[in-house]
Specification:
By secondary structure, the chain is an alpha+beta fold. Helix content is 38%, strand content 25%. The protein has one domain: Heat Shock Protein 90 (2-Layer Sandwich), CATH 3.30.565. The chain has six helices and six strands, in the order αββααββαββαα. It has a six-stranded mixed sheet with strand order 3-4-2-1-5-6. A hairpin with a 4-residue loop joins strand 1 (22-29) and strand 2 (34-41).
Length: 184
């Protein structure tokens, strides 16, 4: 994958498949240039046995293929960029994945189109789960929560083209000042 937003898309799809009601994404850049990506859900979680082998490309819950590359590829990209990937999960309660990367590393992938990724996830899953996005850096912070937007829309679906376009533009306007020029 060429950027982190594609990894995020893939990893958040895991939360959707795990029947999460709420999927939270935090993208945080500290003053030292360490980027933390945290994906947390309240889905089905993983057994201890699956959790112990989830970073292997040969560990997958899918029945359509025998390999799962999303988590192993993200773990390798974190390692190459001087960071780490950790996963906490409790069966029946949910999962929390934390990826850290040093943005000063030549091997650190760019963040990519985070607004496009979030808009895609929301519009392709208009009814559930709910999505929460939090972005922060020394330049500022923002939060996006589909529950608040759903209430304001009063029944208009997220998949409406005008709503999707508005969401994408709003996210770009809010995220660009936070990360612009640093990791985009």
């Amino acid at each position: 994958m060429r950027d982190l937003s594609l990894h995020i898309l893939d990893l958040m799809q895991n939360s959707i498949r795990a029947e999460a009601k709420v999927v939270s994404l935090s993208v945080l850049l500290d003053e030292k240039g360490i980027l933390s990506v945290v994906i947390e859900d309240d889905g089905t979680g993983m057994s201890e046995e699956l959790l112990s082998r989830v970073t292997s490309p040969f560990a997958t819950t899918r029945t359509t293929r025998k390999v799962g590359l999303g988590i192993p590829m993200m773990a390798e990209n974190c390692r190459l960029a001087g960071g780490n990937l950790s996963i906490e999960s409790t069966l029946g309660k949910g999962t929390k994945l934390t990826a850290t990367l040093d943005t000063s590393s030549i091997d650190c992938l760019p963040l990519g189109d985070l607004p496009g990724t979030v808009t895609t996830l929301v519009t392709m899953n208009p009814d559930k789960p709910e999505f929460v996005l939090r972005c922060a850096s020394p330049k500022g912070e923002m939060q996006f929560d589909t529950r608040e937007i759903r209430e304001a829309l009063q029944g208009v679906p997220f998949s409406e083209p005008e709503i999707a376009a508005w969401m994408l533009e709003s996210l770009r306007e809010e995220i660009e000042p936070i990360f612009g020029g640093v990791i985009l």
